[in-house]
Amino acid sequence: MQWLYRFRWIHLIFLLGFVAIVVALWYSNQLAAQLAKEEQNRIRFYVKVIEFIATAEPGCEVAFLFQNVIRRDSSHPPLIAVPAIITDEKGNPIGHNLEIPSHLSEKEKQAFLQKKLKQMKRRGLPPLKITYAPGKYNYVYYMESDTLRKLYFYPYVAIAIFVLFVVILLVNFYITRRNEQDRLWVALAKETAHQLGTPISGLLAWMEVLKEELPHPPYTTYWERMEKDLKQLQKVTERFSKIGSSPVLKPHAVVPLLKQTLFYIKERAAKEVTLKATIAIPEDFSLPLEPTLFQWVIENLLKNALDACKEVPNPQIELKAYLKDNHLIIEVIDNGTGILPQHRNRLFTPGFSTKAHGWGIGLSLAKRVIEQIHKGKIFLKWSEVGKGSVFCVILKCKLGAR
Asked: Which residues are CB-contacts of 365 (< 8 A; sequence separation ≥ 6)?
């Protein structure tokens, strides 16, 4: 199956992506460690330069060192880009290589330096000592450069990108697989309708011939029953045909469609089954529907309820319909065997069936009819093993639907 091969490709891509992330994280950690060592060496060099300038003999040319190592402004970027603040023995800032906004007042600049100094102390990096005279010291506090801090965040960015990549891949796989399944079932529905159409038309024609040849009882009763079943089969064929197309929805009264479907099921249900309807909506209430497909969904839910009640005493099935919050809600309730928890998430998956000889088509096509054609919802509302199940269909009501 094509989707299975694609699933294997997803595993391979996931594995390659994971390996790439691991390599990138390892390399970034190595690079960060190397850069951190280089910055420590640079700040030590910075301290040595300051000591040299402070202890230089009169007349010694130190302007180059001051301009390229110590000073920092927009026109003279420093050789040492590691943020640093020089303090006296009491911890008061007396120098720095930071970029301070020029519009700040002297008081605001001091507050800015104090804030940066607290940040540097919180980093936990031990300050370096500057000896500018025997027994007299200053201290240099520093922290990582902007480049090194960005490098520390790189692994988290890489992981976020990898997670996003996996999510996009899985969503794409899910959508592609669902579309393939939809196309498969639509093609199957079209082909089924096509194959059934011709023999049904032929059988209906032969029915007319037999009516003329044998117009007397008891044959007339047989013809009527056979004709009724053939017309039902023709209706089923029409349903499959419409499943494979994009039908136009037109306003239809809901109550007659529900009653017709329930009457059809009652005729074919066992006598011990109690079938009842609780319809709390007006007779003239209408919605944009494709009536043939809509009835098929309700019929399918009722038939599934009948199957669930085959082995229970006093089987009961109820069809409820009511309006709530601008929605039409239809529930099919049974007291059957219920659905196992491990099966509930797969009920509407094409090909899955809880029946021994089921094809797994009914609920998947019902989901297509309700959600894709009628833009509603269909789901298992409640189920408990040994107590029964409740399936629910929800359709939006437009203003002026009556």
From this structure: 185, 189, 243, 296, 300
Phi first, then psi, for residue 105 (nearest 5°) are -75, 170
**pLDDT over threshold 80, residue 60:** no
* Predicted confidence (pLDDT) at residue 290 exceeds the cutoff of 70: yes
Domain count, the chain: 3
What the block records as the tokens of 389 is 């199940």
Q: How far apart are CA 110 and CA 63, in angstroms?
A: 26
Which residues are within 8 A (CB) of 301 and not within 5 positions of it... i.e. 6 or more apart?
332, 366, 391, 393
Tell me which residue has tokens 């054609």. 373
In this structure, the answer to whether residues 154 and 131 fall within a common structural domain is no
CB 24 within 8 A of CB 158: yes
pTM value is 0.54
Task: Quickly count: other Cβ atoms within 10 Å of residue 284's Cβ.
Answer: 11
**Of 272, 233, 246, 271, the residue nearest 369 (C-alpha):** 246
Judged on CB neighbours under 10 Å (0-12, 13-18, 19+), 213 is exposed
- Same domain, residue pair 128 and 171: no
Cβ burial of 24 (10 Å; 0-12, 13-18, 19+) is: middle
Name the residue range of residue 197's domain. 150-227
Q: What are phi and psi of 107, to 5 degrees?
A: -65, -40
